[in-house]
Amino acid sequence: MGGGGQLTEPGEPVSGRDGGVYTWEEVQRHCSRNDQWLVIDRKVYNITQWAKRHPGGFRVISHYAGEDATGASANWWNHRHFQHHAKPNIFSKDPDVNMLHVFVLGATQPVEYGIKKIKYMPYHRQHQYFFLVGPPLLIPVYFHIQIMHTMISRRDWVDLAWSMSYYLRYFSCYVPLYGLFGSLVLISFVRFLESHWFVWVTQMNHLPMDIDHEKRQDWLTMQLQATCNIEQSVFNDWFSGHLNFQIEHHLFPTMPRHNYHLVAPLVRDLCDKHGVPYQMKTMWQGLTDVVGSLKNSGDLWLDAYLHK
């Protein structure tokens, strides 16, 4: 990775090139596809050429072009979910908010679609057809297609072979017991239940939160605006696998999840100190907010579609 100079605070003068000192304003100008700088521990790096060889892929590291990437561990950049952690709820950077025109999310996208007269779906009804499209199909259909596409497009042949071997092992074990049709029914039913659990547990923490284009916010603010917590209880901890502490999960993604409740008071104190909202809801409120946020976004789309 190409080396760079030290970083000054915004507004401070830039020294000569020999000194290798840059302001934030200058770093932020290097954010195009063919000109990328980023900052790690207050050191500026020109990653324009190296980014193409980044183990996690060009796309993820490019999300931080012109920004501070301190703390973005390389371990995060090996899967789409880690892009979500790097830039949660940000269009074109967080793959989890790419809804393939099936849904419109947040307060900005619905208006943009409405003004442009985009109507792939009746979005003012999305809070209703969500029950037919989202929870039942996410894992059995969408995730499987996307995972296969990713492995093939990235030429991850070893991963593809291991993935195929799972189905070989599954059918080898269950076809003798249940037959081919019974085995297909079993795996489909399990995926169906898994998909419902996954959608509700993950989206009650994210979907009702701020979803927008890149705002170039600081790390803490960005994570807190995109996530919220669900109240702790024995049931909530068990049902969500401790992902009810979604804020802590985003701030400390490599921490064992059963320890999130230990750091939660410290995170809350930090947020209070810096005036960053720390949102916590009941389980019921979190679940109903998923549907409510879809309805609100759909109403925004309809208003813009009809009147603008």
From TrEMBL:
<keyword id="KW-0812">Transmembrane</keyword>
<dbReference type="InterPro" id="IPR036400">
    <property type="entry name" value="Cyt_B5-like_heme/steroid_sf"/>
</dbReference>
<dbReference type="Pfam" id="PF00487">
    <property type="entry name" value="FA_desaturase"/>
</dbReference>
<feature type="domain" description="Cytochrome b5 heme-binding">
    <location>
        <begin position="19"/>
        <end position="79"/>
    </location>
</feature>
<keyword id="KW-0276">Fatty acid metabolism</keyword>
<keyword id="KW-0443">Lipid metabolism</keyword>
<dbReference type="GO" id="GO:0016717">
    <property type="term" value="F:oxidoreductase activity, acting on paired donors, with oxidation of a pair of donors resulting in the reduction of molecular oxygen to two molecules of water"/>
</dbReference>
<dbReference type="InterPro" id="IPR012171">
    <property type="entry name" value="Fatty_acid_desaturase"/>
</dbReference>
<feature type="transmembrane region" description="Helical">
    <location>
        <begin position="167"/>
        <end position="190"/>
    </location>
</feature>
<keyword id="KW-0560">Oxidoreductase</keyword>
<dbReference type="InterPro" id="IPR001199">
    <property type="entry name" value="Cyt_B5-like_heme/steroid-bd"/>
</dbReference>
<feature type="transmembrane region" description="Helical">
    <location>
        <begin position="129"/>
        <end position="147"/>
    </location>
</feature>
<keyword id="KW-0444">Lipid biosynthesis</keyword>
<comment type="pathway">
    <text>Lipid metabolism; polyunsaturated fatty acid biosynthesis.</text>
</comment>
<dbReference type="GO" id="GO:0016020">
    <property type="term" value="C:membrane"/>
</dbReference>
<dbReference type="InterPro" id="IPR005804">
    <property type="entry name" value="FA_desaturase_dom"/>
</dbReference>
<keyword id="KW-1133">Transmembrane helix</keyword>
<keyword id="KW-0472">Membrane</keyword>
<dbReference type="GO" id="GO:0006633">
    <property type="term" value="P:fatty acid biosynthetic process"/>
</dbReference>
<keyword id="KW-0275">Fatty acid biosynthesis</keyword>
<protein>
    <recommendedName>
        <fullName>Cytochrome b5 heme-binding domain-containing protein</fullName>
    </recommendedName>
</protein>
<comment type="similarity">
    <text>Belongs to the fatty acid desaturase type 1 family.</text>
</comment>
